[in-house]
Design brief:
This protein is globular. By secondary structure, the protein is of the alpha/beta class. Strands 6-7-8-3-9-10 form a six-stranded mixed β-sheet, with helices on both faces. It folds into two domains: 173 residues, Rossmann fold; 60 residues, no CATH class. Helix 2 packs across helix 3.
Length: 261
């Protein structure tokens, strides 16, 4: 296992067991992972391999059954300050305007929404949604709604952004567009990002490193460094280096019996 020198997020010996009347279910086993400040790490694997469970444990929404999870050396016992999470479903409130959905992140922390309206508007402008601030979620496309969800997550300027397959339900062109916007945002801010996906190409395009998880109980089978120059645009996907990374990951999944040749 590769250890980073100064971990922002650290999981050591992580296991997650779900009790059941029909026998306990082991979701994660022996997870060891360090993520450095400002690093973009993807959790890549098939459905049911524990990617989302691991992300929820980092977010403090669930607790490990064994092992430790910490942020900057502090145990994760509840949702830590400075973390925001984006889910696959945008979870917008249809009765609130778009700007109202963004500033709710401040209200939930006990702040006055009006004090964060300007910051929310700036985020909407950055993501191409300035003209939709007074619209409602049901008036927006799926891709636009996910942009709003990202704006909401960024409103309180988190240092760590956790993303649980945020683009999985979108069409390929919209997904590409949001990948580019996400990487531009990350390159500008260098937040620490942990990104869950089952798309090999998406993981290679976005990440500094990729943790490959096997099907349950989830284990990190390989931690791969992505040796592609930054900044990146979609053109990098046409390069031999990109293809080599994708081929290597496909070979890993084939070895694990998760992909046929």
């Amino acid at each position: 296992m590769i250890r980073v020198s100064v971990p922002c997020i650290s999981i050591a010996g992580g296991e997650k067991l779900y009790p059941s009347s029909r026998g306990a279910i082991m979701a994660l086993r022996g997870i060891d992972l360090d993520v450095a400040d400002g690093e973009f790490v993807s959790l890549l694997g098939p459905s049911g391999c524990g990617k989302s469970t691991l992300l929820r444990c980092i977010a403090g929404l669930e607790q490990l059954s064994a092992g430790t999870a910490s942020i900057h050396g502090q145990p994760i016992l509840s949702p830590p300050d400075g973390i925001a999470m984006v889910f696959q479903r945008d979870a917008l409130l249809d009765w609130r305007s778009i700007i109202g959905n963004v500033v709710i992140a401040a209200q939930l922390r006990g702040h006055r929404a009006a004090l964060y309206r300007d910051r929310g508007m700036a985020l909407l402008e950055r993501f191409g949604l300035a003209g939709f601030a007074d619209r409602y979620p049901w008036e927006l496309s799926g891709g636009m709604r996910q942009r709003v969800a990202i704006c909401r997550a960024l409103l309180m300027e988190p240092t760590i952004l956790l993303m649980d397959e945020p683009f999985g339900a979108l069409d390929a062109m919209t997904r590409d567009d949001l990948n580019v916007e996400l990487i531009r945002m990350w390159q500008a801010s260098r937040r620490t990002v942990v990104f869950v996906t089952h798309s090999i190409a998406e993981a290679v395009f976005l990440s500094d490193r990729i943790a490959v998880l096997s099907r349950g109980p989830g284990r990190i089978e390989e931690l791969m460094k992505v040796d592609l120059p930054r900044p990146r645009d979609l053109g990098v996907r046409e390069t031999p280096a990109f293809a080599a990374h994708v081929a290597h990951l496909r070979a890993v999944f084939t070895r694990l019996g998760l992909m046929t040749t």
